[in-house]
Design a protein that fits this description.
- The protein is an alpha+beta fold.
- It has one domain.
- 26% of the residues lie in helices and 34% in strands.
- The protein has a 5-stranded antiparallel sheet with strand order 1-2-5-7-6, covered by helices on one side. Strands 3-4 form a two-stranded antiparallel ribbon.
């Protein structure tokens, strides 16, 4: 089966446009600094941005690496992951970063840690 050359060119151009459109634009790197207090829903939480290994995000194709700084937030209970993620987002934005809501969190001794959560 032979394809018309213009159709082939259109398919290639369309695929390359999809590949370049999915590359996120990088902004300035977030600032690693001392712990910060974030007030959320009337409660004060301690937050810290930390360099570390990339995190993970779940996709339809499986787990993928999420590069960026880790965001640790405390004190929280194990059942407060969504609230912890909201506080982590605020801490990341204060450090001039972009929070990746797809970054998986893990609960460690009263704190939630989102590895690769802030880029």
């Amino acid at each position: 089966m032979q394809l018309h050359p213009l159709i082939s060119l259109g398919v290639v151009a369309g695929l390359s446009a999809c590949a370049t459109a999915s590359v996120p634009q990088r902004g300035p790197e977030p600032t690693v600094g001392p712990s910060q207090t974030v007030s959320y829903r009337g409660t004060a939480f301690q937050t810290k941005l930390l360099p570390g290994r990339p995190g993970k995000a779940l996709t339809a194709q499986g787990a993928v690496a999420v590069p960026g700084l880790s965001v640790a937030v405390a004190p929280f209970g194990m059942d407060q992951g969504q609230m912890a993620k909201d506080v982590a987002r605020i801490a990341c934005e204060r450090a001039e970063g972009r929070f990746n809501a797809r970054a998986l969190g893990r609960f460690v001794a009263g704190a939630w840690v989102f590895e690769g959560g802030c880029a």
